[in-house]
Amino acid sequence: MTPNGAILFGLLVIAATGVARELDSLAIIFLVLLLFALATKRSIVAALAWSLAIVAPLAAFMVLVWIVIVGRAPNEIAAGVAGSRSAAAAYVAIVCARLFVIAFAVQALFLRFTDWTPLRFVRALSAPALIKKLLVLTLSLIETILQAIDRARTALIAAGMITQRFSLQNLRNGWLLVQTVWLTVIAIAIGRTRDKWPTEGTLARLDHALAAPAPRPSGVDILWVVTATVCLIIAWSWAG
Amino acid sequence: MSELIGGPNFSGRSGALMERLKALAPGNAFFVGPYAEAALSGLSNTVADELAIYCCVAAPTRRFAPLDFATLAARKPPTLSGGEQVLLALHCFSLSDFSTIGIDTALEQLDPTNRDMALGFLSAGDFTAVLVDNRLDRLAGWTSVEREPQDVFACDLAAATDKLAPTRAPAIAIEDLSFRYVTGRDIFRNARAVLAPGQAYRLIGPNGAGKTTLFKLLAGVLAPKAGRITLDGAPYAPWREGNRLFAFATQNPDHQWCGATLGDDLAQRRRALARHPQIAVPDEAALTALAAHLGVTSAEQHLYELPLVARKRLSWLWPLSGALPWIMFDEPTIGQDRAMRATLATTIERLAALGHGVLFITHDDDFAAAIAHRKLELAEAAIRA
Questions:
Q1: Interhelix angle for A129-158 vs A174-191, to 10°?
Q2: How far is Cα B137 from Cα A73, in angstroms, rounded to an integer?
């Protein structure tokens, strides 16, 4: 599968998930995603676990607010009817299932390209050079923040302010970690943009590294894009 | 003709290097800075991507590949050791079409074998190299430019440590220590070592052997997979309880600041140490005076605005304060001129004589030879005394 095909498939699936109003159509979309992920022949346990972990806090919050406290679904409130907790539960289930499917769609796409480096993936996209460059810079910024977190942790642990394992001390000094991370991000960014990049013209070299003709759509691309389109049509028609 | 820019610290060598690169190849000279942010592009998430950004020669004629970069392809560049990052940068240069390279003290991070290889590569290539290096006075076939010192950031290590009182650091026993990073080989496998107080130890091993990792384990930054550490026989788990044993001067000084200004940093650290009743935390005035001896006279000084060499010296403040019984120096001589290296060696000996335990990592054999020490060799996931 090519990155272009994967991105298009992902967008169609997410659109279908957004349109879906019933658990039935969400179940069909999830089934398609499951097949998509299993076709990679990699373990999908971590992808499912991450998706659940992403949804869990929202689910807990919504259960508390809509089912326990409010006891009615939003459409019942809008219509001014008495409503019921079961309707509220159905509403919470739809919203959480939608988020779960979207989270899993992203995980499944990552699973497809596990062996690809980020630069290779971006280079293969059919997108203007500026967009590709911005994507690489965004990924670089994310990496810089992760690097800064690691550095800041090292500094604060070595100084005895926080501990490597969970502790109350960490909660008390959490704000220090945030402050140190941002100071570090700024220091790293200044180091690069003042010395390395202007001396080398590093960003100009990135243009060269990203310049490549986009690969032609493969049969696999077409298969999954058509499948996702069918999902979108089903979700649309069932919602109507 | 390649060029070596010599001179003591604060003689403007880094500025001269950048000016020279601008004159030789404006906006088109490869640059390896003294710290990781200025050695690698910062645009890649993997080693393979770093190579892809620079590789543009189908059949390079000046190949420099001291490491097996194919096996490191999936690693994130910041997770490589300092020396490995410099080797990666040089490898990228060797695959690129740059005709000029500037290196600001980065070769000081390399072990002797890799350093000799790198200098051989730079001397034999069909390109122009401009080099700042504190351990070289001249190189055959290179022109040398000597710069005059400027009287700034004056540092007096003897005065900084003359009031230190004798202490007795606890003996450290490392028992069956095992550690590996999430993706990677075993760094330690059932490693054992005993570290006596009043003694300096030099950790030796090639780039990537796990020297800095051992420091991080001892300071509680990393938690071992198995094994334990004891202090005078009592269990010690800094990854759970917090570090109350080691004053750690990191290889890159920017890995240890806990505030934006010197005053912030001192206040935060004092507050953290005050939690441990057994630690006599130095008062603010003493620490400010110590900072002045290290070249920084104002507590309002923004740490990141100092020159790298001054930041490196300031990173020795807590080790030299005597507040903690054990001291770790990770590559303390990087960027330091000959005079400062000699003074630092004397200071480390003095700290050990006062009863502190000192661990240090250096690839500078001359510096190490000036300190009475024992060697701890890291090899095959073990620590050998």
A1: 130
A2: 79
A106 interfaces chain B, CB cutoff of 8 Å:
no
Per-residue pLDDT of chain B (385 residues; tens, 9 = 90+): 799 999 999 999 999 999 999 999 998 999 999 876 778 999 999 999 999 999 876 667 788 988 888 888 988 898 888 889 999 999 999 999 899 999 999 999 898 899 999 999 999 888 999 999 999 988 988 999 999 888 788 899 999 988 899 999 999 999 999 999 887 788 999 999 999 999 999 999 887 788 989 999 999 999 999 999 999 999 999 998 889 999 999 988 988 999 999 999 999 999 999 988 888 899 999 999 999 999 999 999 999 889 989 999 999 999 999 999 999 999 999 999 999 999 999 999 999 999 999 999 998 999 999 999 999 999 889 999 8
Contact B31 A195 (CB under 8 A): yes
Nearest residue of chain A to residue B241 (CA atoms): A163
Beta bridge partners of B194: B173
Is B241 an 8 Å CB contact of chain A? Answer: yes
Residue of B79, B101, B258, B316 to mutate for A, most A C-beta atoms under 10 A: B258
Question: Structure pTM?
Answer: 0.83
Q: Is B268 on the interface with A (CB under 8 A)?
A: yes
Distance CA B309, CA B334 (A): 8
Q: Which residues of B46-62 are buried (b: 16+ CB within 10 A; e: fewer)?
A: bbbbbbbbbbeeeeeee
Taking the C-alpha atoms of residue B250 and residue B246, their distance in angstroms, rounded to an integer, is 12
Calpha distance B383→B193 (Å, rounded): 6
Q: B254 and A187: CB-CB below 8 Å?
A: yes
CB of A143 within 8 Å of a chain B CB? The answer is yes
Q: Is the dihedral of CA B290, B291, B292, B294 positive or negative?
A: positive
* A3 class by beta-carbon count within 10 Å (0-12 exposed, 13-18 middle, 19+ buried): buried
Dist. CA B36–CA B44, nearest whole Å: 13
Work out the minimum CA distance from B303 to partner chain A, whole angstroms: 10
CA distance B229 to B335: 33
* Residue A99 near residue A136, CB atoms below 8 Å: no
Cβ-defined contact of B27 to A187 (cutoff 8 Å): no
As a whole number of angstroms, the distance between CA A176 and CA A186 comes to 15
Alpha carbons A51 and A103: distance in angstroms, whole number: 5
The DSSP line for A58-118 is HHHHHIIIIIIII-S-HHHHHHT----HHHHHHHHHHHHHHHHHHHHHHHHHHHHTTTS-H
Sheet of strand B143-146: strand arrangement: B30-32, B100-104, B128-132, B3-6, B143-146
Q: What is the DSSP letter of A173?
A: T
Q: Which amino acid is at A213?
A: P
User: Is residue B192 within 8 Å of B329, Cβ to Cβ?
Assistant: no
